[in-house]
Structure to design on (177 residues):
């Protein structure tokens, strides 16, 4: 590969690192071509890009993208899964593929913003429910105390109105006799 081609690859990788929410590095040793093709197809369905990279180019790209933490999780034959949407999606896709295919794909680690994640943290990330479920649980948890406060405040007003209504009926009853 010529130097200008290498520079172009480094620039492209730096752009991907800057734009992605999460980057997960994997060791793809032992994968057959058919398995790699199937993995890429599954990831592409979830809008995740999976790319085999040279470690030296990743190092240059990480420095260029100001994400030097990625260098710590690049070792051996490396491929990177770039996630752009929900941060759990690439982790779930890779873990699902490893479980269903029984392949030798190994997760090395990940980079979430500027935080390095271990392989076990990636597995934990994959076990999280989708973002929508977490948001609905959070809102449900926040809604409970608010409803309780409204009921408590409403009880005083309702009790006062009941006393006024009873007094009005008492006075009406006294006037009609």
């Amino acid at each position: 590969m010529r130097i200008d081609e290498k520079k172009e690859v480094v620039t492209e990788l730096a752009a991907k690192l800057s734009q992605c929410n999460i980057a997960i590095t994997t060791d793809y040793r032992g994968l057959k071509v058919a398995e790699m093709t199937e993995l890429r197809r599954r990831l592409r369905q979830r809008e995740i890009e999976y790319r085999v990279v040279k470690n030296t180019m990743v190092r240059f790209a990480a420095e260029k993208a100001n994400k030097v933490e990625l260098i710590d999780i690049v070792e051996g034959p490396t491929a990177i899964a770039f996630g752009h949407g929900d941060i759990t999606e690439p982790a779930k896709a890779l873990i699902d593929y490893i479980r269903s295919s029984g392949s030798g794909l190994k997760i090395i680690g990940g980079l979430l913003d500027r935080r390095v994640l271990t392989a076990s943290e990636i597995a934990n990330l994959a076990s999280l429910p989708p973002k929508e479920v977490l948001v609905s649980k959070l809102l449900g948890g926040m809604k409970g105390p608010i409803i309780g406060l409204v009921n408590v405040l409403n009880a005083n007003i309702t009790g006062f109105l009941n006393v006024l209504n009873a007094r009005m009926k008492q006075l009406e009853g006294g006037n009609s006799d």
The CA atoms of residues 73 and 109 lie 6 Å apart.
